[in-house]
Each structure stands twice: as C-alpha cells, then as structure tokens.
Amino acid sequence: MRDNKGLRWMMLLLVALTMFAVYVVSDVFSPLKTMLEAQNGWSSQEYGLFSSAFALFNVFLGMLILGGILLDKKGIRFTGLLSCGLMIAGIAFKYWAVSNPDLIHSTVKLLGTEYKLQVVYAVLGFAVFGVGAEVIGISVSKAIVRWFKGKELALAMGLQLSLARLGAAGALAVSPMIARATGQVSTPVLVGLCLLVLGGLCFAIYSIYDKKLDKQIAQEATKEEASFSLRDVKDILRNPGFWHIALLCVLFYSAVFPFIKYATDLMVNKFSVDPNLAGFIPSMLPFGAIILTPLFGGIYDKVGKGANLMILGAVIITTVHVLFAAPFVNQWWMAVILMIFLGIGFSLVPSAMWPSLAKIMPEKQFGTAIALTFFIQNIGLFGVPFLIGWVLDKYCIIGDRVIGTLTVKSYDYTLPMTLFAIICGTSIIVAFSLRRLDKRKGYGLQEANIKKS
User: Fold this and answer.
1) What is the pLDDT, as a whole number, of residue 245?
2) Would the N or C end of the chain have less CB density within 10 A of its end CB?
3) Nearest Cα residue to 98 out of 126, 129, 79
4) What is the largest CA-CA distance in the chain?
5) Which of 158-172, 307-321, 326-340 has the lowest mean pLDDT?
6) pLDDT at 350 > cutoff 90
C-alpha cells in the first residue's frame, strides 16, 4: 500500500485536512484582541493568559508526553481519534464561555489576580483543545513518516504544514469579518467547531486505510509496537540530537506563534492600519509558508543541507523581529515586506527540522520523541504569550485611542518585539551547534531524504 503513490498521497490529504481544521481553531481568536478588549472588556494580560492556555495542560500536567507514549504503545488510530474527541469537547466548552455575556461580569481570583469568569472558562476549554491539538499533531507526523519514510518525506511534511497554515491564514483574514458581520466574537469559534467535526471525520476515514496497512504488514507492526518500552524514554533523553532539535523548536516557535497572536494588534498600534484590515498583513505569514514549505521540503528531499536550511531560517526571522522593533520602521508597506520575509524564514526551519528528527530517532521511538519535543515547545508557547501580555500592560501602555464609539488602550511594541528577537537569536546558536553535532554523529542531516535504489 505504501508503494502505491496515489494512495499514500490520499492518506496525506486526509490527515492534512484534519490539521487544517486544527490550525483554523488555534488562530481564530488571534486577530480579535482589539474586539475582545472593546466588547468583552478583556485586558492584554487576560488575552495573554488565554493565548498561553493552549499549552497549559501539556506543560503542567505532562499530557503531551503521555500522548506520545500512548501513540507509540497504542498506535496512530487510537491516539488520533481520542485527540479529535478532546479538541471538539474543548472548543465546544470555549464557545459556550465566550458566547455567554453573563460571565463577563463575574470574576475569580487566581494567584492574587482577578480574572473574568469568561476568561477562566475560555482558558479551560482552550487548554483541553491544546492537549488534543498537540497530540493529533504528533499522530499525524508519525502517520506521514509511516507512509513516506524513504520516499518524499520532507515534501509530504511540507505540504501538510502548508495546508495547515492555510487554515491559520484563513482564520487571521476571515475571523474579523465573521465577527463584525455577526457582531459576536463567539461566531468564529462556532465556525471553527464545525470545521473540527469535519476534520475528525477525515481522520476517521484515514484510520480505515491505516488499519488495512496494519494487516498488510502485521508482523512488522506487531514487532515494532511490542519493542517500545518506557526505557526508550531514557534513550531519547540521552540523545544530544534530540535536545538540539527540541531547543531549536521551542526557541523558533516561541518567536513565531506568540508573535502571530499579537501581530494584528501590532499592525494597529505601530503601523496605524485600520483594525478592519489589520488581520490581512499577518495572514501573509502562513500564506507565504503555504507555497514555500513544500518547496524547501522538496529541496531537502533531493539535495539535503537540512542543517543549513534551519540556520538560514533562524537568521531571517531574527532579522525581521529586530526591524519590527526599530522605531524608523513604521509604514504599513514596510510591515508587508517584513511579513513576507518572516514567511520565508517560517518555511525554512520546519521544512528541515521535522524530517531531521525522523533521521535522528528510530521509528519505534519517534512518537515519544516528537511528543517530548512538543512538550518542550509548549513551555515556550505557554510562557511567552503570557509574558508579552504582562509586558504590554506593565510597560507599554502609551495612552488611549478611539475605534468607532469604543475607547481602547494604545501600546508601544518596541520592548515585546525586542524580546522576540532575543528568543529567535538564541535559536541561531543552537542551529549552528546542531550542524557541528551532525558532522560528529553522522545523522545525515545534510544528506538527501529520498533513498535511491
């Protein structure tokens, strides 16, 4: 079945459609920060807490690590379908919270700070979704390795990321339109919930074919699953290649995904873009990645140079964040150019990083290895958005501005963008160190992925 080119690409399409829905829901609130402040009275710190909630249970309850072990023990189908159920339940609860106006006027104290009850419930729903979203992500990654190893692996991973980022781009561009058309910030969440249900159906169809593949290679599959044990976790943690990929992952993604959460507000505050149009400029980031990630993945498949691709991507994104922090970069067309380059850097690193992890780790340990990588990544995805929200409220308020009939805070984004630049700048050091390690260990990161007979 894996040698059937049409069939394996159909499997990729099914799991990629699932991830498309996941990415839509992940970013459906990203361009609505201003509307949440104006209509629901959320503060930047409350918005930062909500954005961090995606990683809450993954970091503090270790759910992602458990999901990776479950993936290697129980398989792709069981873990993936369970993840879809968690995502749907979490977003359904979040929709109930943000569509209930009575929750805006009630508060609860957490760690000495008062938060709106609506925010707390939205955080809980998004946190449950985050568990399912990250575990489905590692399940899909293992599914692609299962069907494409020794073939067009990086291209397949790049295409999956491209379709997923199309979902993120669509959320950034369309979510404000839906919210304005209906007058409710909760409506985009309902649209995302419907897409998640359809994404779950796509994964269920994939599971049917995956079960047939298991029957075809029954002895190999049984041997592989039985050979995994908890001692493999110790082997993964002793692997220096794993730690380099994990550190690069957390630094790189902490400089990108949290930035997306605040990018629309940055466009409004620094570049004076109309709030009704501000979401379009950040949407260029995933749109650019849609085209470029498969392109760079194809290069890695045929030419190699994976470590070089990661170094170049980290350098580009660090440079972009430095320029976003610069006071003289203040015109909307400058923001457009920087976002294009950010899309290039955003495509380079993942197109090489995830296939490289598949080279470093044995396939029987891949699910747990990628789960541990995502766990470390989630520490950054939890801490950085909350940090940025706190910094904005504490140090960056410069006055008020009027949007229509509503008054909201104005922010100076120089300090937050400087923090993003420092985080990504550190990833450059890790990427260079990974290239040196590859020369010593012989992982083959600079070699092509496609095996020639």
Assistant:
1) 94
2) C
3) 126
4) 68
5) 158-172
6) no
Rounded distance between C-alpha atoms, residue 349 and residue 313, angstroms: 5
Of 64, 60, 63, 29, give the one whose Cα is nearest residue 46.
29
> Rounded distance, CA 170 to CA 295, Å?
21
Distance CA 416, CA 324 (A): 10
* Two structure tokens written together for 393: 């409220």
Residue whose tokens read 């995956």: 210
Give just the sign of the alpha carbon dihedral 384, 192, 65, 244. negative
Q: Which of 171, 416, 418, 392 is nearest to 282 (CA)?
A: 171
The mean pLDDT of the chain is 87
Helices (H), 28-100: 33-40, 44-52, 56-60, 63-74, 76-98
Q: Structure pTM?
A: 0.73
Residue 405: predicted pLDDT: 63
Residue at 264: amino acid letter = T
Sign of CA dihedral 267, 268, 272, 277: positive
* Ramachandran sector of residue 450 (left: φ over 0; alpha: ψ -120 to 50; beta: rest): beta
Of 138, 139, 132, 133, the C-alpha closest to 167 is 133
Question: Angle, to 10 degrees, between the axis of helix 280-302 and the axis of helix 153-182?
Answer: 170
Whether residue 258 contacts residue 388, with contact meaning beta carbons closer than 8 Å, is answered with yes
Using alpha carbons, select from 138, 153, 157, 203 the residue that is nearest to residue 366. 138
Closest CA to 69 of 388, 434, 334, 364: 364
**Span 72-100, average pLDDT:** 93
pLDDT of residue 311 exceeding 90, the answer is yes
Asked whether the beta carbons of 67 and 146 are under 8 A apart, the reply is: no
Q: CA separation (Å) from 183 to 31, 121, 168, 186? A: 15, 21, 22, 9
Distance CA 93, CA 366 (A): 32
Q: Quick one: tokens of 247? A: 């550190």
pLDDT for 203-234, tens place per residue? Answer: 999 999 999 888 877 655 444 444 556 677 88
Judge whether 273 and 281 are in contact, CB under 8 Å: yes
Check if the beta carbon of residue 295 is closer than 8 Å to that of residue 344.
no
Is residue 260 within 8 Å of residue 285, measured between CB atoms?
yes
Nearest residue to 314 (alpha-carbon basis) of 379, 251, 380: 251
How far is Cα of residue 449 from the mean position of the Cα atoms in its chain?
Answer: 24
Determine the pLDDT at residue 274: 80
